[in-house]
Amino acid sequence: MKIIKIIFSVSVLTLLLLGCESVNEPISYEDGAVPAFVTIGTEGQDVVAGGSLEVVFELGQTQYENVTVEYTISGDAVEGDDYVFSSGTPGTVTIEHDPESTSLDNGSVTLDFPIQAALGTSRNLTFTLESATTESGETLSLGRGDIGLERTFVINGLGAVPTGTYTYEATGDFGPFSGTFEITQPDSPIVVGGAPYLFRTSNIAGALFGVDVAYAFNVTAGGDVLGAPNAHEEGFETIILDVSGNYNDTAGELTLDVTFQCCGVAGFGYQIVATPQP
What we know:
This protein has 278 residues and is mainly β. The protein has one helix spanning 2-19; strands at residues 37-40, 45-48, 52-59, 67-74, 84-87, 92-95, 106-112, 122-134, 141-142, 150-156, 164-172, 177-184, 190-192, 195-197, 199-201, 215-219, 225-227, 241-248, 253-260, 269-276. This is Calx-beta domain-containing protein.
């Protein structure tokens, strides 16, 4: 009985010592242990022009000291045009140890995607881990197998529509009317209701108001028209229209579906079909 008690005590002591093993001690793959590692925690995903993204780098085990992570960026996205760093440094991030935290330490960088990012197309932005080193000089593994070593983000840009003079025909609740308007792309986006818009039509309402009513809009890469919530020029802000439609690049045709949400005629509307003048 004494021998059994001694064996049991030694086994418990061994388990306690193993449970207290520091993650900084050498780890044997053959023993089935997981080495200290770092991953890119943010999943690869689609992002949109005008948005932002936080890219998180995280440890698999606490290291009890800061860890410097080096990474590279590849793909056809262009820094400064398609993305900018609003926080963090390109190519390196420091995972700072927080002794008060109950979570594993992590660090991050934040990217902003300008409204004109990847205009009319989509572009790839790939983050790849290159090294991870603790302050004391220990090297950590990169990724966990194939997980988290590399992440690709696809920047989906807004579409483009040709600028210039358009001839249009309109049909709907107000009878047929026709005319011309100018499509322009200002040097700076037009901000309406807190959202940026790249394009502007010089007149979206024909002669219905007796004066030209300019209106801002975007076109997605798929050709869908996204109109501003209201007219943006001073004195016209109370003209509220639902503007949708599409731009067909093959046909060279811009369609604007307009529905009034103001002016005593809410729910009435018309469709404009416009083509660029040669």
